[in-house]
Amino acid sequence: MPIKIPNNLPAVNILEKENIFAMDEKRAYAQDIRPLRILLLNLMPTKIVTETQMLRLLGNSPLQVEFDFMYTATYEPKNTPHEHLVKFYETFDEVKSRKYDGMIITGAPVEQIPFTEVDYWDELCEIMDWSQRNVYSTLHICWGAQAALYHHYGIPKYDLPKKMFGVFPHTVNIKEKMLFRGFDDIFYIPHSRHTEVRRADIEKVARLCILSESEEAGIFAITDKKHRGLFITGHPEYDPLTLKTEYDRDIGLGLPINIPANYYPNDDPQQLPVVRWRSAANLLFSNWLNYYVYQGTPFDLEKLTDLDEVCGLCGDGI
């Protein structure tokens, strides 16, 4: 089944050229099926790029999915046309009466700012609390994962001596977990961050489980024991040239930045990057959608209850 996305969203043309099947609203309404409802809280400055990345990965699933897009009302994005936000995005006040099968909270370029000093921190905390009662499974990415771990469990983030920047090998700690079903023993994921969370802090929280990590990049994937909160510290959604764009930007600004690791052939920025993470990214998002959303979410979303009260079909062995 395809993803169902709003008519005229810029991502539609891009995905069609990549042969990813996207269904417009008119055709979707003609199908007798309840699609999964996914809410994307897009905290990235270039929202059109990020929404396309997410739709690309979730469009590679046999499940029909429909999206709502949300941004924070307490911070006005500066890198996305206002007309795009008005046409395709909603604020929390506009969506908080609904319930969703799944939600994605993206990263944001604010990781070097203390959590409580981020302009939209109070609003984000309200959204994260709301998600525990109104969303079956929430996938948090990069800073979004750090923010949720801090808000829900008090886990701090730590500054790194230099930016974690590149494409790093990872291993799976608990191979029977469904999130990594079908993964190779070693798989690659991009990282681009100045801060980290640490194993010692996570292991103090009995409700959390570390699923995957990297010898170089540290902790990668964490889940709560009821599988309704997933926390990913890297950027599996990145396009082939995203790290290049970040590297070129920082070089142009005269900022200290290393060549992204395991990215350019022979570490030569004049060559085209090698994509090592595409299959892992597609599999990760597909597994989340299937095993952590579809297999557990109630058919009647009004039956969703608090995160602490429900453990879906995904038991401890998944």
From TrEMBL:
GO molecular function per UniProt: homoserine O-acetyltransferase activity; homoserine O-succinyltransferase activity
Enzyme class, broadest EC rank: transferase
Compartments where located: Cytoplasm
Site entry: Important for acyl-CoA specificity: 111
GO process annotations (BP): L-methionine biosynthetic process from homoserine via O-succinyl-L-homoserine and cystathionine
Sequence positions that bind substrate: 163, 192, 249
Active site feature: 142, 235, 237
Pfam families: HTS (PF04204)
UniProt keyword Cell cycle, yes or no: no
Family listed: Belongs to the MetA family.
Catalysed transformations (reactions): L-homoserine + acetyl-CoA = O-acetyl-L-homoserine + CoA
Organism this protein belongs to: Sporomusa malonica
Domain of life: Bacteria
A GO-annotated cellular component: cytoplasm
EC numbers on record: 2.3.1.31
Keywords: Acyltransferase, Amino-acid biosynthesis, Cytoplasm, Methionine biosynthesis, Transferase
Gene: metAA
Name listed for the protein in its UniProt record: Homoserine O-acetyltransferase
Pathway: Amino-acid biosynthesis; L-methionine biosynthesis via de novo pathway; O-acetyl-L-homoserine from L-homoserine: step 1/1
Feature type site, description Important for substrate specificity: 192
SUPFAM superfamilies linked: Class I glutamine amidotransferase-like
General function of this protein: Transfers an acetyl group from acetyl-CoA to L-homoserine, forming acetyl-L-homoserine.
